[in-house]
Amino acid sequence: MTVLDRLAGGLVVSCQAPAGHALRDGAVLARLARAAVDGGAVGIRCGGVGGAPDVAAVRRAVRVPVIGLTKDGDGDVYITPTLRSVAAVVDAGAEVVAVQATGPADAARPDGSTLADLVGAAHRAGRAVMADVSTLDEAVAAAGAGCDAVGTTMAGYTRWTRDRVRGPDLDLLTAVRAALPQVFLVAEGRYHTPDDVRAAFDRGADTVVVGTAITDVSWVTARFAAAAAGRG
Ligand SMILES: CC(=O)N[C@H](C=O)[C@@H](O)[C@H](O)[C@H](O)COP(=O)(O)O
What we know:
Elements: H1 3-7, E1 11-15, H2 26-38, E2 43-49, H3 52-61, E3 66-71, H4 83-91, E4 96-100, H5 115-124, E5 128-132, H6 136-144, E6 149-151, H7 170-179, E7 184-188, H8 194-202, E8 207-210, H9 212-215, H10 217-229
Helix pairs in contact: 2-3, 4-5
N-acetylmannosamine-6-phosphate binds at residues 14, 16, 69, 153-154, 157, 188-191, 209-213.
């Protein structure tokens, strides 16, 4: 059974916290990951700015597959953007390396490498690669570059998709599934409810990643607090 087989049909929980967030602590994120697995998560996505130590902490804490990433630099391409960041995620023990695959697939990255270079490095280390894309063209290019899985993670977060949808980009799922019937398709980005998760599988997703709505306690609290404040 491949690592992607272990994720198929289940829920992946993203345990990340940005710099300055109260939960930004490797041990805390590892505890969150364990709690998510206790609740039925079949995989954990984790990492962040300088996030390799968080990936390692989560890897030690759970038995399910880990999708790891780092967020580096302030450019348009920031999710595991370089060969060095791929090596950091590999060394941290992630079975799947998430890499941003937005824009032209052959575009040079901050270190001059291409998407195919990153895929080659991860594959030589025995890891699968998840491409974080924002459009159908990017999904097709990522599959062509050898990525093992394609996720809609970046839909709504690139300059060219910023105004496209407010919620989860279900139409992108449908389009990718139609164009790439064999690809391992990950629904990710603004999946906030169990109904959203069901909808993603209906559109052909193989797995769904939920982050903020499960693991960002501040975000969840703000919704309840707003309801309390708006009561009278
Ligand atoms: C765009 C970007 O950088 N997304 C990041 C990717 O790892 C994370 O900040 C998201 O939390 C993650 O994709 C899960 O999505 P959501 O938190 O919406 O369930």
